[in-house]
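tool_call: predict_structure(chain=1)
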Amino acid sequence: MKKIALLLFLLNSAFLFAQKEVSGLVKDKSGNPLPGVNIVEKGTSNGVSTDFEGSFRIKIKEGATLVFSYMGFSTVEKTVSGDKVDVILSESDGQILNDVVVVGSRNAKRTVVNSAVPIDVINVKDVTTQSGKLEINELLQYVAPSFNANKQSGSDGADHVDPASLRGMGPDQTLVLINGKRRHQSSLINLFGTRGRGNTGTDLNAIPAASIKRIEILRDGAAAQYGSDAIAGVINIVTNDNVKEFTGAITYGAFNTDAKGDFPEGTANTKGYRLDQKGYGNSFGKNQDFDGGSVKVSANYGTPIGTKGGFVNVTGEFLNKNKTLRPGFDFRKGFGEAEIQGVNLFVNLAVPISDKTQFYAFGGSNFRDTDAYAFTRNDGERVVEAIYPGGFTPRITSKINDNSIAAGIRTETSGGWKWDFSNTLGKNKFHYDIKGTLNASLEERSPTEFDAGGHSLLQNTTNLDLSKNYGDILGGLNLAFGAEFRVEQFEIFAGEEGSYATYDTNGVPITDPTTQSAPIDPISGEPRPGGSQGFPGYSPANEVNKDRTNFSLYTDAELDVTEAWMVSGAVRYENYSDFGSTVNGKLASRLKLTDKINLRGSVSTGFRAPSLAQIYYNLRFTNFSSGGATEVLLAPNDSPITRAFGIQKLNEEKAVNASLGFTASFGDFTATVDGYMINVKDRIVLTGYFDATALGMNVDKAQFFVNGVDTKTTGLDVVLAWKKTINENRFGATLVGNINDMKIDKVKNGDLDEKTFFGERDRAFLLASAPPNKFGLNLNYGRKWFDAGLAFTRFSEVKLLDYQMDEDPEDYRTDPSETDAQVFANQKKAATDTYGAKIVTDLTLGFKVSKSTKISIGANNLLNIYPDQQDDWVEAGGYWDAVQMGFNGAYYYARLGFNF
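tool_result:
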């Protein structure tokens, strides 16, 4: 034993004597120090990062080579001959696999290529200057392999906030971070015929694209690292920190109204007709060849604070986008994308307090005024002829305020421990105004506009994170610990009385149905309904003000066992005040097979806490189907009505994730291929409509949020990238793809009827959130003052079930001898609407007219491709549903960009 100890001492001594300490300074071309530059001794895992003044100190072997890498800058290698090394880094659009990332690892020197899990890094500046996409969801839809988002129509709040997802999971099963800090969710919960029905999500479009430096997408389960919601992965948005640079752009674009298809005479907008100026939908104006015209103006500027690397970076953005009008069925006169007027502001700053301590803060404010079509009212009992002869299309207008601020202090102790203490506050408020509407029970006395109330979500998160890298333990050990305390508050606030009340014949709100009665409709002979048509207002009975707290502890570690083999692990404990505790863990590993190829994989458990909206949301509304209008009560999870139907208290969703893949880098070519499996137990869904006539609440149906299904998702992500400069010609090609398969293993309906609880139509909507595949090929060319981009995106086939599934199965019996299963199969076949695979082509051409000015022209969906036209009504009431590339057709745009 003594001999072994002596041998280890001699080996360690020899290693120490063979090392020397060097120091230096890293700056950009303007002479500004670069904090956070990754510096690694080549061929080892020994590394450090520059401090806030751009300086560093590291012990290395004699004659070693140091590798300097930093996001957005060219990597530099420098062989050390003395004890001081100063380096200047130049900006570059280097390969994404060499970028140092924030998400997925708390190791400051971990890059995409040597991470144990798949991470996409998207340079937003490149994407926004080479496409006509206006919002973050649109950008990611076409560049990230497993990201999906679609515009909606006739889906209430979802027309204003796009549901988005990773790997076919729910919008609330992806965690969003800003600069590594948890982002608050939207207060909106998706209902009706939207993707992500029954889910809440994060409104990515509330963050101005011009404020973003890059987006990191961790495509792996990460609840053990970051907490609730990270079942599908994590999206981390890193904001701009550049200084002494003013950039901006002015973009204008519009959609081609020539919708392809054979539509019945008089259908809305068959030739580009627009609605009348009041937007009621009962008359049309002159022909428009283009609609949905949009103007976007953005500007970004950064300035230094002091001389030690401090900065403040400010972004402003304005968006004005008109409605689109596309063919709807004869009962749906208003069908198309919502109008948006939005203003965005975002600020990012950092101020050094000392050599090792920095104060930082970032946050923004987003305001959107939106206007979307609701369902057309053509039936007698909901139309007051004196106000709207022939029917009307109500409009749901929403004022959305989304505000956030984060602040913290980072420091590094003399012992090498990095501390980060921060607090992040965010609030989303959704306020509805219903226009072009009426309260039918008021008859001719009804106003045509109502304040319908709304909802809000506040989230405050306090974090303490500690980490340290031990370069002398094997190939390097990184330890991290942390704690988090979070407070959430969900509120529903009531609208004005006329938006929710039913009035009697004297115009008095009905409080006692035994002595008061609503006026009778002369056509239907039924009592006229109350509340604003299009979207009923929230009443005082709907009001909610609920909160909860969450406390969590985590630890994770990464160990480079050898230069070729890295292992990592994480454990996280969470305690929620409303449903209890959960513990989750993760193991991951990367093995360097050669200098060019890495094998990687992970396995983890995860969870998602039920959102406050899923627990407490409640509303009475009118649902339209092929059978007509139905009054529905969406009861909160904690109500006696819910318990009477046997629905239990909501608990967390539980997940098991596994992935296996490889990365390869051969000069100008890089590749990542990753397979994955995500099993989710007790997934929260929205049930179908149960008969509620016996409740005595003047409603026909009731529905609920439940831990209703178990799902299993398997898939494959592929990213292949090539960049090459030949003389003065710059070439690039990127192929991204996702293959995805989701199956519903179990429906947990208990004693309730399975068809009503979560029937075939509900299943189809859930599965449609996970399209079978999506592939994109992006080709780029540049030379001197000219560049061009050509992109092809293939969206796979999607199948939905229309309202024939709600009809009597016996109507589909073709032979008296058929079994019930055969009759049901006939019905399902008749009700299946298949949207075939489509390829969308995008083209952009850029012309640099001066050193600081560039003009770009292009088209999204150049060939004007639409989803397949359907003859039966699925959900939205148009000839297409919100699948694949959307339903607006070709979009042509021009942009003036500047950089000073």
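agent: The CA atoms of residues 251 and 895 lie 4 Å apart. Proceeding to next step.
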